[in-house]
UniProtKB/TrEMBL annotation:
This is Transposable element Tc1 transposase. GO terms for biological process: DNA integration; DNA transposition. Gene3D superfamilies: Ribonuclease H-like superfamily/Ribonuclease H, Winged helix-like DNA-binding domain superfamily/Winged helix DNA-binding domain. It comes from the Eukaryota. Transmembrane segments: none annotated.
Length: 261
């Protein structure tokens, strides 16, 4: 880490030695050159031992990477976070003729505050859809509560009967992976699950429907026929409600859109 201490210039060091040769005390020299007496003492001691005020040459090999090389690595990681250290080392070799171990690249990346983590998975949304979603959000962000009272939101969701379909972590010590407390029990065929259709509005919850087998547009229309208007009556908005749903292919199928007209 740079900047831990202030380096005394060689000209000041030589001046300190001249004053010392003239018989001045360490504290007097410190006041004259505006340096702490401990620094003056260290410089004089070094001069007595080595006959010079120069710093000793540092041992070890010089840094293989220049500031430009390090900046290149960080720039690449900022732009392409999923770029591997192996590929980045190869790119450095091609561009700067520097052969590096990928671990060296990782050390540079870590030194700038980056850590390798498992990327979160998220459904892909293209630029056009992002813009449409953002425009939609901006158009309704300032709507008051009364605006939402006539809307019904609905969707389907799967619930696992046994365990979770997500990623589960456990805090444990080394060699404790088989401790029953740290194990995630499983059953054959995943334990199964159920699919539910449900809806809600500002005034409460609507009907909840268990879906057997896979759902297609025709089964979806039947669910809407049997539950949407009844739920709207529960909400007290049977004559004025508007339906909000996502763009699942079943929801946007022609037959569904015609039925909703």
């Amino acid at each position: 880490m740079a900047g831990r201490y202030k380096v005394t210039k060689n000209s000041i060091r030589n001046l300190i030695i001249e004053h010392f040769k003239d018989g001045k005390s360490i504290r007097t020299i410190g006041k004259l050159v505006k340096v702490s007496h401990s620094t003056v003492f260290a410089i004089i001691k070094r001069w007595k031992l080595r006959g010079t005020v120069e710093n000793a040459l540092k041992s070890g090999a010089p840094h293989k990477l220049t500031h430009r090389n390090r900046s290149f690595i960080v720039h690449k990681i900022k732009k392409y976070p999923r770029l591997s250290a192996v590929k980045l080392a190869t790119e450095l070799e091609k561009r700067f003729a520097i052969k590096l171990n990928p671990e060296t690249v990782r050390q540079v990346i870590r030194s700038h505050g980056y850590n390798s983590r498992v990327a979160s998975r998220k459904f892909f949304v293209n630029e056009r859809t992002r813009k449409l979603r953002l425009d939609f959000a901006k158009s309704i962000v300032d709507k008051d509560t009364s605006f939402w009272e006539s809307f019904i939101f609905k969707d389907e969701s799967k619930f696992n009967i046994f365990g979770s379909g997500g990623r589960i972590t456990a805090w444990r010590k080394p060699n404790e992976e088989l401790n029953p407390k740290n194990l995630l029990p499983t059953v054959k065929h995943g334990g199964g699950g159920i699919m539910l259709w449900g809806c809600f509005a500002a005034s409460g919850m609507g009907n909840l429907v268990f879906i057997e087998n896979n759902m297609d547009q025709y089964k979806y229309i039947n669910i809407l026929k049997e539950n949407l208007k009844i739920s709207a009556q529960k909400f007290g908005i049977q004559n004025t409600f508007k339906l909000y749903q996502d763009n699942d292919p079943k929801h946007t199928a022609l037959n569904v859109r015609l039925w909703l007209l």
